[in-house]
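> call design_seq(struct)
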C-alpha cells in the first residue's frame, strides 16, 4: 500500500510531505519512528502509485 504522508523529520526539524510504500500501517509506523519521524498524518492511501495521485493533495 502506498501512503501519502505529512510529518515532522526531527533530524532536520522540518515538516515534510512524501510518499512511501509499506505492507501495512504498523510497518509504516515502525519505519518512520526508526527514522525519527514524528507527528505523522496519513493524507491518503492507494494500491497503485501514480504522479497524479501523489500530486493530488493540497499541502498548504
Amino acid at each position: 500500500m502506498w501512503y501519502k504522508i505529512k510529518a515532522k523529520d526531527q533530524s532536520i526539524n522540518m515538516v515534510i510531505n512524501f510518499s512511501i510504500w509499506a505492507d501495512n500501517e504498523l510497518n509504516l509506523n515502525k519505519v518512520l519512528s526508526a527514522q525519527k519521524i514524528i507527528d505523522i498524518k496519513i493524507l491518503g492511501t492507494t494500491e497503485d502509485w501514480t504522479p497524479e495521485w501523489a500530486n493530488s493533495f493540497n499541502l498548504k
